[in-house]
Amino acid sequence: MTQAITQTVTFKGNPLTLVGNDVQIGQSAPDATLIANDLSEFQLSSLKGKKVILSAVPSLDTPVCDLQTKRFNSEAVNSGDNVAVITLSMDLPFAQARWCGATGSDQIKTYSDYKSASFGKAYGVLIKELRLLSRAIFVVDQDGILQYKQFVSEITNEPDYDEVLEAARKLSAR
After folding, report:
1. Which of 17, 100, 108, 167 is found 20 to 30 A from 68 (Cα to Cα)?
2. Residues 18, 52, 56, 65: which is the catalytic one?
3. What digits encode the pLDDT tens for the residues 20-32?
């Protein structure tokens, strides 16, 4: 069983509180119910059997989230069919679909956590004060085990892409 956490991140230097479960490397990746761009429900557990990069962002309509998601979209091109690259935010599914269309981002999938904050709570990235997701990356292996996590302490900063991609490459070597 995962323990509840209260972790602090900052937004432009101002502290914010993350709430949810304290996920640990080596544990089964928590499941979450998300909303797809067509408003259907999507279960993270349906990705078992694939290597998964989960990229959580506050909102696709902000500069850093835009850069992060475009970067993972371009990396997904070379990831192969057995790798799923997912971006999660509290943005409405319509906004996510609009963003993907406007940026030509067709290699990733976007899912919304707006309804129940299921992902935010399950992975400990729900910002209490804003009800947005904090910037974080998780890498899950094909057996559904969490192999890597990165919480970006200042959410206006980009993640360490090289570190994330190295963690994903290590899974590919297995």
Report:
1. 17
2. 65
3. 999 999 999 999 9
